[in-house]
Write a structure and sequence with these properties.
Blueprint lengths: L3 E5 L6 H12 L3 E3 H9 L3 H24 L6 E3 L8 H8 L2 E7 L2 H7 L14 H19 L2 E4 L5 H16 L1
Parallel strand pairs: 1-3, 1-4, 2-3, 4-5
Helix pairs in contact: 1-7, 2-3, 5-6
The structure holds shikimate-3-phosphate (S3P).
Length: 172
């Protein structure tokens, strides 16, 4: 298994938490696109949105992805909007296993209820925002994924076990 494992899915699906633990278990390096971007710029994602708008953020996100895709054998968590650009999809599809962590809007709302950092969630009506995003993005996540994990009713450890099982059955 030389390929990168790329985690995709909506905000609150658990990409960062699952990714970090999965990497540890597999003894691989873990990278979180948003975190790498924050470390690189020295500011929070919300500040990038404020100063450069979503478009500025998306350009930076693609550059970070280009860099991270140079690695092999890593676990990489992406931001929920990564599937919006065709060039990103092309980048992450190369030599990788794409794992879609799916989550219903209700789970997303529960898991992000204290969130003050994600710019797209700072709206009056999170339900409507998340519904719109899921209508637009969920079909794309599903289309490009090699493996789909429904995170709604299971713990992080169970999701990880399911990912490992499904990766093994891809190999055989
Ligand atoms: C975004 C999701 C965020 C982050 C940014 C935009 C999105 O990442 O990249 O706020 O468009 O869904 P998470 O999915 O890790 O929250």
């Amino acid at each position: 298994m030389q390929s990168n494992i790329i985690l995709i899915g909506p905000m609150g699906a658990g990409k960062s938490s699952v990714g970090r633990r999965l990497a540890k278990q597999l003894n691989r390096k873990f990278y979180d696109c948003d975190k790498v971007l924050e470390d690189r710029t020295g500011v929070a994602i919300s500040t990038i949105f404020e100063l450069e708008g979503e478009e500025g953020f998306r350009q930076r996100e693609t550059k970070i992805l280009e860099e991270l895709m140079q690695f092999e054998n890593a676990v990489i968590a992406t931001g929920g909007g990564v599937v919006l650009r065709k060039e990103n999809i092309k980048l992450i599809s190369n030599n990788s296993i794409i794992v879609y962590l799916s989550a219903s809007v209700n789970s997303q709302i529960k898991r992000t209820r204290h969130d003050k950092k994600r710019p797209l969630l700072q709206t009056e009506d999170r339900h409507t925002t998340l519904n719109k995003l899921s209508e637009q993005r969920n079909p794309i996540y599903a289309k490009i994924a090699d493996i789909v994990i429904d995170t709604d009713s299971q713990s992080i450890s169970t999701s990880i076990q399911e990912i490992l099982q499904k990766i093994n059955s891809l190999d055989s």
